[in-house]
Amino acid sequence: MTRGPIDDVIVVGGGIIGLAIAREAACAGMRVRLLESGEIGREASSAAAGLLGPQLGADHPDPLLSLCLASRDLYPAFVREVAEESGIDPALLEEGTLVVARCGSDVEALDRQCAFQRSIGLSAERLRGEALRRLEPSVNEEWAEGLYLPRDRSVDSALLVRGLERAAERRGARLRRGARVARLVVESGRVVGVQARGDRVSAGAVVIAAGAWSEEIAGAGVPALPSHPVRGQIVCLGPAAVPGRPLYSHDFYLVPRRDGRVLAGSTMERAGFDRRVTASGIAALTAAALALVPALRDAPFHSAWAGLRPATEDDLPALGRAAAPGLLYACGHLRQGILLAPITARLILRLLRGDDPGYDLTPFDPRRFQEKSFRSADASGQISPAPAR
Ligand SMILES: Cc1cc2nc3c(=O)[nH]c(=O)nc-3n(C[C@H](O)[C@H](O)[C@H](O)COP(=O)(O)OP(=O)(O)OC[C@H]3O[C@@H](n4cnc5c(N)ncnc54)[C@H](O)[C@@H]3O)c2cc1C
To answer: Which of 299, 311, 167 is nearest to 238 (CA)?
Structure first.
């Protein structure tokens, strides 16, 4: 930041990203206020399946893969600390992830992924027939080709979010529920605070972590970051004899929970801010689950839900400083927000302190949207509202 290290910060949004940043900043001795428009962690973050799977489908180098791998490395310590600070165990499952395929181009894709991942030093093991069945007997025999990724894990995201909420508060962050941020307060071009429920709240820096709603937040001369929601539905079955690890095929997955539930997900839909579960969503996910693990046929239906993933125009997160001093973004994590929470928190803290982030954030720079299509704000900071949530 232009004024040197910051010692107090406002975090807008109480999903996993805002909570992880609030906790990290509070641990570093900063004065932290997190403002959440509804209840903490009730949006995309607790809807997520909790896959920590940077290697899923990876067959070429790209900046998001590197960021995801770096965050995966931080996960065991992150989960341990949250559990110690909160008393809530986020149920990290360390049995690897199994990608399966049936035939043809899908099998070639597994070969390609395996070769690429090994070439960059990642663990990946091609399994076929009996070897696959020994690892995961529940998989339909027609899926006879597999790629085992021992370091891709999963976590119970709802538990992790509850743990983070408690940990952030115990570390000294102040969390305000029901405090919707209406706009940024800007003085002489610098963001100096926010307007929330009629109150002005001031701080040395503001971090926008408002998920799919980040595009609602602007200030005088400070345009909003273009973003949009991508709906994801999940069907939850069980208790049942669940697979021992997450199973993944194409864009479909089954993720087991410790209590015997199994999550079947997920859809990718542009449905605006509508987070209703649909008949076609339930039908498609249930059919895919039964095709992959036929024994689930007798599992009881448990529940179904949907959440709104936050997406930017190029599907990459927006991480780092805005053009206006005093403002940072941590949003647009789309399908990887649970996985990316620890690295996001670490990088944002370094930027708040005025340190070198120690990571090339160029591909994720929020200013990349600036020339193109940042929505314009008038002098009062008003922008046209997004559809109702
Ligand atoms: C079905 C589904 C499955 C998924 N599976 C995975 C997975 O397996 N692995 C993975 O890594 N990721 C997964 N994701 C993606 C992941 O859930 C998201 O990327 C992540 O939760 C985004 O976190 P967030 O904190 O940015 O957003 P959110 O959790 O949506 O939190 C944003 C918060 O900001 C608040 N807010 C909004 N506007 C304002 C305002 N004006 N003032 C104050 N507060 C405001 C909202 O109320 C909300 O609580 C999945 C998502 C879905 C929907």
So the answer is: 299
If we measure between CA atoms, which residue out of 216, 207, 182 comes closest to residue 12?
Answer: 207
Tokens of 163: 């743990």
Could you report the per-residue pLDDT of 301-333, keeping only the tens digit for each?
999 999 999 999 999 999 999 999 999 999 999
Instruction: Return the exposure string of 326-350: e unless at least 16 CB atoms fall within 10 Å of the residue's CB, then b.
Output: bbbbbbbbbbbbbbbbbbbbbbbbb
Query: Of all protein residues, whose CA lies closest to atom 1 belonging to ligand 1?
Result: 232
Helices (H), 5-154: 16-27, 44-47, 63-86, 105-119, 129-135
**Using CA atoms, how far apart are residues 161 and 16, in angstroms rounded to an integer?**
6
Tokens coding 200: 């002005």
Name the pairing type of β-strands 318-321 and 190-196.
unpaired
Measured CA to CA, the distance from residue 183 to residue 199 in angstroms comes to 11
Match 């909003």 to its residue by tokens. Answer: 224
* 159 C-beta closer than 6 A to ligand 1: no
pLDDT band (50, 70, 90) for residue 3? low
For residues 191 and 184, the answer to whether their CB atoms sit within 8 Å is yes
Say yes or no: CB of residue 307 within 6 Å of ligand 1.
yes
